[in-house]
Amino acid sequence: MKVDLIIKNGLVMTMEGRGVGLIENGAVAIKGNTIQAVGSTLEITRGYTAEREIDAKDKLVMPGLIDAHIHTGLALLRGVAQDIHHWMQKGLWPFMKHVTIEDSKKGSMVNIIEGIQAGTTTFCDYDRSMNHLVENYIKIGARARVAELVNEIPDNIGDVPVGELYPFYTEIGEQKLSNNLSLIEKYHESANGRITCILGPHGPDLLSVELLKEMKGLAEKYNTKLHMHVAQGDREIDQMVKRYGKRSIAFLEELGYLNERLIAVHLTEATDQETEVVAKSGAGMVYCSGSIGIIDGMVPPVLKFIESGGMAGLGSDQAPGNNCNNMFNEMKFAAILNKVKRSNPTVFPAALSLRLATIEAAKVMGMDHEVGSLRKGKKADIILINLLEPTLSPLFVDPIRNIIPNLVYSARGHEVETSIIDGQIIMENRQITTIDTRNAILEAQQAAKEVSTRAKQDILHANSEMLQMMEEGLL
Amino acid sequence: MKVDLIIKNGLVMTMEGRGVGLIENGAVAIKGNTIQAVGSTLEITRGYTAEREIDAKDKLVMPGLIDAHIHTGLALLRGVAQDIHHWMQKGLWPFMKHVTIEDSKKGSMVNIIEGIQAGTTTFCDYDRSMNHLVENYIKIGARARVAELVNEIPDNIGDVPVGELYPFYTEIGEQKLSNNLSLIEKYHESANGRITCILGPHGPDLLSVELLKEMKGLAEKYNTKLHMHVAQGDREIDQMVKRYGKRSIAFLEELGYLNERLIAVHLTEATDQETEVVAKSGAGMVYCSGSIGIIDGMVPPVLKFIESGGMAGLGSDQAPGNNCNNMFNEMKFAAILNKVKRSNPTVFPAALSLRLATIEAAKVMGMDHEVGSLRKGKKADIILINLLEPTLSPLFVDPIRNIIPNLVYSARGHEVETSIIDGQIIMENRQITTIDTRNAILEAQQAAKEVSTRAKQDILHANSEMLQMMEEGLL
């Protein structure tokens, strides 16, 4: 049978079954945007011919990574809010009100480039101005499941003193919800199906109970998921207790939010019991290891969630928190931080990290019929990794393999040489072929320069520990 | 004045003073293997001319990183011992007795390549067969402060059941000590001074009190330091208590080991009080964040050590534990794991990580007169980092800078483009110029294949959790 592309002679890792699904000397046949067959090189080359063949000798061929939670619209502010208290209020918000949609879009593109260069093929982006950011994904050729960040708080929320209840403005919520709906109407299943859209309530503390209820109804109407921060910090719990007299999980349970439509992000502050309630409800969880480690110095209860029968995926969160958007970083941190949390080197083995960045993340996002593993009929989202990089050398095969620990604990991301998304080669020899990456970076640099000029007085006024670090020559 | 090399137009980070010592639009003049001057581009280009100039526009120019604790001789076994209990006994040792000196040397070279590609210029290598491994550093052109691992235990130590006292063999100790001394005699201050040699007692539990005393005397005779594991795990403490009825720190204190000659590596099991004792003694500490996180699920008391007035540096340890030897990885892990340990995002700020990988590590190793910062008279060990990589973009400068958090929390290592060691350019455009890196990797691959064949029965006999993971398709 004639197909468009055959990848052959590689070590294929399908992520099918309960493990990682390795096929030595394997191959993949691709027609259009779809995987036609996966098997041994012998089987595939006997059964298929193609215009183009990629010789994957000394390469690992695996599903593209899924970043289950990223805010690319914040990427322009990478590195401006670290090592301080009140990261969001004193670090981010003084900048935020000076970031235009165009600025945000420029930063987003750099972030997407970074992700693709480190093997991400599906971005679950959750941010404001998504009707604009989504254009970046269309242009660069990535897969994205996007949601508009819907809340009822004003842009100058940073002026509200820490600890005071946020004001809600109905008209702001209506506008943002309308953006989310127009996103769905305009972009859902666009770009050959690469772009899909879901709903994005910002968090139980950031919009009114009326709007939360309305969005729940809309999720049922559109038969879609709700991407939402839940118990994401003591700041949220403080707001919930002050406003409603109850913590986030109990509040959401009463509201009927705890079910398979919910993608509960972070759960940083969830107790073991609350974690179990969410896991058993059928909701998914996204764990952002690096971001929560840096911002909060905490390890959310992802292992407890999985042990309670829940589905979880990994996300890189935003650049000014993590500060990188590299799923290899997340896989390594997820494993090590949980080993440290449990004081046990055997928990969170490498294969679990790999699953949480591929097939399990796909399940959480409701995309496992399309991506997350290499199987006939799924979309052709595939990355090729150079096994002759020193970080992955040498390779042991028998009686034990070392490729899985080395992928998770040693690879940095730059070992990814080729990225195929929706059947199209969008990166080859580490060069992204669809856009001018240097120009994208220079545009973001110019935007950052202008934002810092406009935001200067607010930054000085916020008086975070970073100003003192500047004085002490530490920054 | 005429010099050999000028690096100009860069963002220079000297690591001088108490912070990071940034100079915008800075330059460095190098003559022979020595830094002649550091200053603004204007100053340097007015005062110096050179045969060769490097335009460092959009580059960060900083001291090469110092890996204060690495066992490159184990690198061949990267990835064979993760996610299990008894990492050393059941993971490493079944392989170890089948690894020849030549195998070990081949793995070591891949490890050194990996380090250089991620910005390491000084390797504090501490391993068996150092008289052979040291040739790799001479060949590739790196700086190394090396020590032979001196113990009195046999190669088949893996056959001793977990928990039993190790047998000591005087003749093994004598041979290894003799190797350490011949290393010093033959290689100390060789290769234009790039190679320096110190003493390397393996750990308080792995050689007899007589040999420990002898090595202490030799350290005084040679006026040198002792690179040693101290309180590196419950395994060590168990051996110490069983053999001597006391824990490692108390034992070493009585032996007169706690002073500025000691480089105490890990201190994983040290109590707060023991940590303070070591810090106040003048001994240095090396913290290996990734390795101890993976192997033990622990965060050693490095912050307590620094707070007690001690000098600390970072090390990457061995590839089959960490599993990578990348100081960017160590810097990020050091910061985040300590934030998590203290549940406080403000502890271990980015600048501290940078100092512990440069100037503070140089102090711990007794090399701060030569390396660790950019200053007139120091050796020219300098790396250039591309600031236009997406992981470091965009750059904010005023009123706060983001380059330091982004270097520590976002860079992966591959942003390092150029490496100058002892005044020689040994990597340019990410290509190491002094050896054939591909050939080195293929040689290590062949050696690994042979080792796994020879070790197969021992690996099966050790019956670690990795065999079960193989069966379950997790490896």
UniProtKB/TrEMBL annotation, chains A, B:
The protein's name: Amidohydrolase
Coiled coil: none
SUPFAM superfamilies for this protein: Composite domain of metallo-dependent hydrolases, Metallo-dependent hydrolases
Domain of life: Bacteria
Domain Amidohydrolase-related positions: 60-425
Keywords attached to this entry: Hydrolase
Single GO MF annotation: hydrolase activity, acting on carbon-nitrogen (but not peptide) bonds
Stored CDD domains: ATZ_TRZ_like
Keyword set includes Hydrolase: yes
InterPro entries registered for this protein in UniProt: Amidohydro-rel (IPR006680), Metal-dep_hydrolase_composite (IPR011059), Metal_Hydrolase (IPR032466), MTA/SAH_deaminase (IPR050287)
